[in-house]
Structure formats: structure tokens, C-alpha cells
Amino acid sequence: MRRISYAVLLFIGLASFGFAQTDSLGIERQGEKVFVIHKVKPQQTLYSLSRRYKTTVSEINAANPILANGLQIGQTLKIPYGGKVISPDAQVTSQLQESTHKVKAGETLFSIAQKYDVQVSDIKSWNSLSSNAINLGQDLIIKKQVLTAVEQPKTQTTSTTAPTSINVPDSLKVSDKPFEEVPNSNSLALADTIKPEIPEETSYPGTPFEQIQVEGNAEVISEDEPSSKFFALHRTAKVGTVIKVKNLMNDLTVYVRVIGTIPETSENENVIIKLNQRAYDHLKAIDKRFRVQLNYFQ
Question: Distance of CA 62 to CAs 78, 188, 230, 281, Å?
Fold first, then answer.
């Protein structure tokens, strides 16, 4: 039996599936599934984490019941890794890798952090930067964690046993010729008349979802009693639609559910969405009316 040994490299991240050491605490295996233990940092959302680990928001929610009350800074999540599935017999290890990024014209620490899916504070820490100022052509250290899964060699052992001879009486011996069954004429006729039914192909009559991205003004809703949920009013989105709202002033995001339509008044003329107090606080907006970017499917 030939022994087989091979290694599979797993890279978790925007381009190479890498993740920062400061928020990824380790990995956990459950059968053939691999989970990344992740500690939530500021400005991270379920959407950004789903892209980072190649999974979906619904799968993250299913693996973490604590998210029923919303995503919070400092939470420890178990995120299913959606990349290549490795054998359960593989031994998974991790190590830190460094790369160098040369600053190009027009780049900022924020844009570089987005490119590598890391935090600005991490880049500053790795490069001992006291401010956000960087220079054209400057070399910046970027770190990422790499998971390596090495399958253990397996050996297959076979055992052979000597055949046991049995003395069979002549009266129980059978002919060397195999038994041949004579076909029944009635069964042949019935087989010719009965034919399997083939279902007709049907097409889905629905319409495909359309992804919508729009920018405009958001405003906070005046509430008598603050709610623990994230919800909003919108002009055209259907009730129940989940919208990703991004504060363009600080890039903080929040997911809200549409519960109604914005009233057609002169005060709401230039407003594309109205957020409840908790969603507004989550975005850390300075003014009651501020610029946002909306992403949702209609």
C-alpha cells in the first residue's frame, strides 16, 4: 500500500484569506468544518466578517446565538470558514506571515487597511506610527495569519486467512451449470406496456433580485421609548428588507430592517432613510442628519 502525505494551505482574507493576529484567536474543528475564533473589533460588521472568512451572514448568525442582540465590540465569535474543506484527519497549525506594501500616490492608511482587510490601528502598531501620516514610496509592514493543514500519512493493513475446506456430501452437491430462470411471458408483456413517467420541466416564473446602492441623507427618528432593535423607515424598500447603512463620515456600518415608509412631508424631502435611535448611536453620527450609503436587494 502506497503512503500518501500532502499539505493544503488555507489563506483566509480579502486576497489571500489572511487574518490579523489581534482579532483572530485561533481555530476549531467540528468534523469536516473549520471555525475561526474571532474577537470583534471596532468598525467590523457581520457583512465584512462574512467576506473576510468566505461565508455568509446567516451562517455566522446560526453558529453564534449571542448575535440575537446584535454585534458588539469585544464579542468572541465562532465563524465558519467557507474556503476549501480539508480532511478531518489533517493537523491544522497557524503561523504569522509578513509582507511589505509600498505606499502609492493617493493612498491613505484607511485605504491600505481596507485593501488587506486589517485595522488602521494594526498597521500603525506594526510600523510604529504615531499618526496617520504616511509618505509616498514608504514601505509598510502588513501581517497576516496563515493556516496550514497537513494530512497525516495513513497505512492500510490487510489480513489474510487460509481458506477452510469443508467436506460436502455428494447428496448436497449441485451442478456446475448456473441456474437459469425461464422468463414469464406475462411479465415480459407487462414490462413492455408500463413505462416510467418523466416529469415535465418547469421554469421558475419569478424575477431575479436587484442589488441597489445609493447615497443620500439619513436622519434619526424621534422615539418616545428607545428600542433594542435596529430598524428604519425607507421610501421604496419593502417592509422587512434588510439594509446595510454606512456612515460616510467614519465608515461605520449597521444593518437595519425596514418597518415602514418615510412620510411624504417637506421635512423629509431630502432624506432617503430614517433610523431609530439605536442604529443612529451605533453609527456614531455627530449631526441629526448625515450622509450615508445604502446597500440592499430589492
Answer: 10, 54, 19, 26
Domain that includes residue 46, residue range:
7-150
User: Pairing between strand 289-297 and 271-275?
Assistant: unpaired
262 with 273: CB under 8 angstroms?
yes
What is the distance between the alpha carbons of residues 26 and 23, in angstroms, rounded to a whole number?
9
Domain total in the chain? 2
pLDDT reading at 178 higher than 60: no
Q: How many angstroms separate the CA atoms of 196 and 173, rounded?
A: 42
Closest of 105, 173, 170, 112 to residue 141, by C-alpha? 112
Separation of first and last alpha carbons in the chain: 57
- 24 and 146 both lie in a single domain: yes
For residue 93, is it within any domain? yes
**Is 149:83 a contact under the CB 8 Å cutoff?**
no
Tens digits of residue pLDDT in 34-73: 888 888 888 788 888 888 888 888 899 998 998 988 888 8
